[in-house]
Specification:
The protein has 203 residues and is of the alpha+beta class. The protein has five helices and five strands; from the N terminus they run ααααβββαββ. Helix 1 packs across helix 3.
Length: 203
């Protein structure tokens, strides 16, 4: 039978001081597609940015009212939004958060601390400074888990993992410097198929 859940905001944890120093604001606060990965046509980009924002809002208990959602998205994303597409995007976000197989990533009762849209920067092998934004970082008391949302409507998991493995490795290194000694894993959540694909881990 269908499962209906209401995502409620958990008590906001104090910001861990270790998240202040090595993590610096990235140039772009809202998700943009990677150069190597997801489709870059305008409709796919808008869909991806919208679903990322809807997941962030719902996970934080700040879901906008349906009547104002399209207008709010247009303001946040800075572009015209086709209001007819918004209910489908919201339904995809809701189904993801309600998926029993993903409860370990989203259920507040199973998590000690959570962060969304975490800006990071790291030193690349060529000496340049790179920037990124972790879609979601969770602490279940045992593992820190880095979650990267992928919003392709027909995702190819194997290809996406290959395309984003290096990016996830950089994120894992950055968070490892903030939480030395903690087990950390990183993976992809495919929003359309509601799948979690762990990619890397470090104990």
């Amino acid at each position: 039978p269908p499962i209906s859940v209401t995502v409620q905001k958990a008590p906001e944890p104090p910001i861990d001081p270790r998240l202040r120093s090595p993590l610096r604001p990235a140039p772009t606060p809202i998700w943009t597609p990677s150069q190597s990965g997801e489709a870059r046509d305008p409709d796919a980009v808008t869909r991806g940015r919208a679903i990322h924002w809807l997941l962030q809002q719902s996970a934080n208990g700040r879901r906008p009212a349906p009547a104002t959602l399209a207008a709010k998205l247009a303001t946040v994303l800075g572009e015209d939004i086709d209001a007819a597409l918004v209910p489908g995007w919201q339904a995809e976000a809701d189904a993801l958060l309600a998926a029993p197989a993903l409860s370990m990533l989203f259920d507040p009762a199973q998590l000690k601390r959570t962060w969304n849209e975490v800006p990071v920067q790291w030193q690349a092998s060529d000496g340049s400074t790179r920037h990124g934004v972790l879609d979601r970082l969770i602490d279940d008391g045992s593992w820190l888990t880095i979650i990267d949302y992928k919003t392709a409507p027909r995702p190819n998991a194997e290809r996406l993992i290959d395309q984003h493995r290096d990016q996830l490795a950089a994120y894992l290194d950055a968070i490892g410097k903030v939480f030395p000694g903690r087990p950390i894993r990183a993976g992809l959540v495919l929003t359309a198929s509601r799948e979690w694909h762990p990619v890397l881990e470090r104990r």
